[in-house]
Amino acid sequence: MSLKLLRVSCSRRLTPKAARSSALLWTCRFSLSGSQTASNFHPTTPRYCSSASTSLSASKMAAPFSAAAAHADYKLPSFTQKVVDVMRKHFPEELAERSWDNVGLLLGNLETGGSETKSASPVVLVTNDLTYAVAKEAIAKKASVIVAYHPIIFSGLKSITSKDAQQATLILLASHGIAVYSPHTALDTAPNGINAWLADAATGSAKGTRAAARLTANPPEGFTGAGAGLVVTFDEPQTAGHIASSLAAATGHKHLTVATPDRSATWRERPVKSVAVCAGSGWDVIKDTGADVFVTGEVSHHSALKAVQDGILLFTLFHSNSERGFLRERLVPLLQGELTALEAGAKVYMSEVDRDPFEIITV
Questions:
Q1: Residue 87 CB-density burial (10 A; 0-12 exposed, 13-18 middle, 19+ buried)
Q2: CATH number, domain containing residue 89
Q3: Cβ–Cβ under 8 Å, residues 101 and 136
Q4: Pairwise CA distance, residues 335 & 146, whole Å
Q5: 0.70 cut: is pTM over it?
Q6: Looking at the domain assignment, is residue 151 inside a domain?
Q7: 269 is in an annotated binding site
Q8: What Å distances lie between residue 106 and 83, 137, 342, CA to CA?
Q9: Which domain range does residue 118 map to?
Q10: 181 and 209, same structural domain?
Q11: Annotation-wise, does 188 bind a ligand?
């Protein structure tokens, strides 16, 4: 049989038996154009085929475009996955306050298949806030991953354009193949996280017992006692002046903001049996702890008024200044040690342009 063109016209119908079982059959009529020499070909004879067999043929034809085939063409670079794994090992995402927070890998990068593939450079940039300036710094340092404490994507985005700094930053990072991981409150609640550093900053060499201000429900195995904020009860009473000096030394800032029940200079001599700390905006976490001194990044005007009227001495450091020291002093060395063991030539840098938007000036 020699064929120039085969035309197939199909219609669906239910046979009497199939109608009872709702089995759908296809009625197909075949016709030939050009020379038709097959003696056994009858263009008007119905041919029946089940929808299952039709689907099988269609799936074979569409195989190169299936989801599985597409997925095989892209994957997360191995170095990016190593960074994510190390962060999750020490600061599990299960510790985060997911009811309102957004943690984890927020922007991925690709390592596509093929001989043209270049592996992502094993460089990580750590920052408190991911600004456009930090993104440009990451590009200059040839970073392939940014670990940003605060999530750059906090609520849903319906589009990503250059209309504002946040979206422009995401476009810039994506165009350079840089992934972004954010731990945020997983770092806050981990026993070895930001609030442990802030408690050390507030207490200095003074010894005492520690407990979370608000325990995390059902923490993962190995993280018993995790929670938001920390309350330190001193073995021996300290002075408010000792806490102020310790905070200044740990943060590298000569000026602190303080709200005191007594504005006279004698507040420095005030005895302190306990101090509650919570990095960032921590008032809601520590307000009911009953500690003598509160340390956080920022509070509202009315929260500060309540503190002093309740006889509590309150230190604020500015939001990110209460967090950045942990990243520089503890997270960068931790990542460097872990990643060096996993990837030859791995480098971890602390951002040099990241800073709190506020500063105290003398006029």
A1: buried
A2: 3.40.1390.30
A3: no
A4: 12
A5: yes
A6: yes
A7: no
A8: 13, 19, 23
A9: 78-186
A10: no
A11: yes
Tell me: do 89 and 202 sit in the same domain. no
Question: Could you give the percent of the chain with pLDDT greater than 70?
Answer: 78
Residue 3 has pLDDT above 90, yes or no: no
Give, for 166, the enclosing helix (H) or strand (E).
helix 165-175
Residue 323 annotated as part of some ligand binding site: yes
Rounded CA-CA distance 300/125 in Å is: 32
Which residues have C-beta within 8 Å of that of residue 201, sequence separation ≥ 6? 246, 247, 250, 251, 325
Task: Name the CA dihedral angle for 331, 332, 337, 342, rounded to a multiple of 10 degrees.
Answer: 100
Residue 116 assigned as binding residue: no
Amino acid identity, position 3: L
> Lowest-pLDDT range, 27-36, 70-79, 142-151, 296-305?
27-36
310 found inside a domain: yes
- Count of other CB atoms within 10 angstroms of residue 264: 7
Residues 147 and 194 in one domain: no
Q: Are residues 196 and 314 in the same domain?
A: yes
Q: What whole-number distance in Å separates Cα of residue 41 and Cα of residue 72?
A: 43
